[in-house]
């Protein structure tokens, strides 16, 4: 199945803008979000699907947690991602279903028995008003989770980038306002 959302505005005042189904027997689909604005109370997008391929380009995504990602491959390019919510917990904690509403702009929760990979490239603007711009939470023997950043601007009230050291987090380029956890692999990073 392939879903294309192009030149659209979707909003959910009480739930999630776009939500995938994460049961193990639902392997996912290809989803393309382009030139669109998606907003949701809990998240603009929740994607837990095992083998899903999601591409977000030239779009604006807004939610308490901007994006909650638990499965598949997600590529974000030249987009604005905003997390507006208060931090629900001090440190992200795994859930069996759904995701922790962290307040992050991009939150990756790698706690299922399948991998999740998120790549951010181009001129993204990723902002969390109360938490981290980008965060990876993993568990030993699960996922694994991987975040790779190849440019853009990242800012979060608690910090620009965080992880709990399970999985892989690499930053190749970009500008970061706020702390970047010192154990994240960095190549060409400007910290302000």
Main beta-sheet strand count, sense and barrel state: 14 strands, parallel
- What is the C-alpha radius of gyration, as a whole number of Å? 15 Å
Q: Beta-strand level of the residues, as a percent range? A: over 45%
Give the helices and strands as they follow along the chain: EEEEEEEEEEEEEEEEEEEE
Mind explaining what this structure looks like?
- It is a single chain.
- With 192 residues, the protein is an all-beta fold.
- Helices cover 0% and strands 54% of the residues.
- It has no helices and 20 strands.
- The strands form two sheets. Strands 1, 2, 4, 5, 7, 8, 10, 11, 13, 14, 16, 18, 19 and 20 form a 14-stranded parallel sheet that branches. Strands 3-6-9-12-15-17 form a six-stranded parallel sheet, with no helix packed on it.
Outline of this structure?
0% of the residues lie in helices and 54% in strands. The chain has 192 residues and is mainly beta.
